[in-house]
Amino acid sequence: MKKNILRNASILFLSVFVTSCSNNQESYNSSITSTNSMQYNNTTSFDGTSQNAITNQSTNDNTSIGNVSDELSSFMAFSFFKSEKADDYIEYQSKNPDFTAEEVVTYVNLGLNHDFYTNIEEIENPDSTLVLSNKYRILPKDYEPADLELIPEKYSKSWRDLYLRKEALDAFIKMCDAAKADGMNIYAASAYRSYDYQVTLYNNYVESDGQEEADTYSSRPGHSEHQTGLVIDIRNEDKDYDGFGSTAEYQWILKNAHKYGFVVHYTEEGEWITGFMKEEWHIRYIGIEHAEKVVENNLVLDAYLIQFN
């Protein structure tokens, strides 16, 4: 209990420090008493403990607070730091000492300190083009984008009608036209999928290959990016999913997709983060500005998007 009180006090202490610096104050009194004098619900800490009680701790306790502050200060440098995950950051860092502070905050926020499909959070921003849907984040069961539009037949090769959100569709058409001008043929093979459709698809895979294997290549219902309406599985004239990685069209996608706002989501390097096998055909729309940042910095998409979720 004392350890948690000290850690919470430390978070308050550092928050005040960061605020004072950003306001260009000339000086800052780093004592716990000074922290107590700031207006943070008068004398109440995160867990309801009196700040006056904390400032009256022994000299040894104040030293402990300083040690905890040192641990947390590197994490607090990032805008996506979450105070409620402070203990998780420290524990994850201790288990992964080679990770940078930014990696620790990113991976803990993603949920990688837990097993896949545990500690699941419901997605609150499903309409955002930067929404992150993965094995730790679930879409509302009844979510369906309001701006879905039919992919024109000339850009599709599927046995059923395919739909995308309008912004993603407009970008996809531009990309396909540009590829065509370079002698490449790119088509949509799959796009938006409803929750119910994913239920059927996933259950069929489980029945065929078992759940452990199915989880490496198919999302459980509610966790699929396809439900966002921002994902397209692509192919060329001759090669479907499995063969797309060997095509000239795939090489074109790697060099050019980001110019239209798309990135290849599931890569071999990112498998330990996403929990999915490499899928050369699975492209996700996030907009040109963000796609360029992901590609230029060779980032795993989940690690980039978690900053906005």
What's a quick, concise take on this entry?
The chain has helices at residues 2-22, 32-37, 51-55, 59-76, 86-95, 101-110, 166-181, 195-209, 211-214, 248-256, 271-274, 288-296, 301-305, and strands at residues 121-122, 137-138, 148-150, 163-165, 187-190, 231-235, 262-264, 282-285. It has 309 residues and is an alpha+beta fold.
Structure, described:
Helices cover 43% and strands 8% of the residues. It has helices spanning 2-22, 32-37, 51-55, 59-76, 86-95, 101-110, 166-181, 195-209, 211-214, 248-256, 271-274, 288-296, 301-305, and strands at residues 121-122, 137-138, 148-150, 163-165, 187-190, 231-235, 262-264, 282-285. The strands form 3 sheets. A 4-stranded antiparallel β-sheet has the order 5-6-8-7. It has a two-stranded parallel sheet with strand order 1-2. Helix 1 (2-22) crosses helix 4.
